[in-house]
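Subgroup meeting minutes
Present: P.N., E.W., G.H.
Scribe: E.W.

1. P.N. recapped why we're keeping a running log of single-chain structure predictions: easier to compare across weeks, and new members can see raw inputs and outputs side by side.
2. G.H. added today's entry (273 aa).
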Amino acid sequence: MKTKKTKKGEDRWAPLVESHPAGRVSTTGTASGSPSGDSTAIFAQDLFDGIAHSYDTWAQALTFFQYLRWRRFLVSQMALQPGNLVLDVCTGTAGVALEIARHHNSQIVGLDISHSMLEAGLRAVERRSLDGRVQLIQGRAEHLPFPDETFDTVVFTYLLRYVQDPDATVRELSRVLKPGGQLLSLEFGAPETSWIRALWLIYNRVVMPIVTIPISRGWHRVGCFLGPSISDFHQQCPVDRIAAIWRENGIPLVETRRLFQGVAIVMWGTKRR
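Output recorded in log:
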């Protein structure tokens, strides 16, 4: 992937990153190498590489135009000060990073495993002339290439279903968060009301695999995968369990908001000082 580098930019970003296989920070680019890892990581990378070119359009349409609303609510819960440094994990096409930059005078580092998603994100960053404030790198949430207590805020979206050990991943996210900093997340949920849950199951298990067929092979793959993935994850790690993992890793008070009848869940809390 082509990157643009300047001495000023390199000097400003370089202290954030340790030498690490996941990648390195450059002023407007991703890591030059593809992250190595287990089969879960390889699957996630391949899945999202296949839909990167149209991710924003279809993510919005297939969520009944709720996707951007969920993102805006997530960012609205951030208590940022001018100049704060934010880590956006699973940044994808940099949607959350750009939303943060739109509302806060902060510096944002976006990290994702998918090279193609980051390429799309880089184009979006450059279109908005935000490459001086938004930095994109390729890497894995389980092995962050940053020193301890680097960031004022850490946010992650749709991450924990794609890692083998959610507990260890949250521990790693907490490691790079400063004491007193915020941890936030956005994830798909499962509705609690029985009739809404029934409709949700029909949509995820029947409708999604069908309506994604004409979009592309990559989206059809996502349409078949997503419903079972969400259901299985919430059986193994319900919201209460995820909140407990946060508490076990230094976030004593975890707040939760269910959106769109529980189809999406936003969580946030502050790291113990």
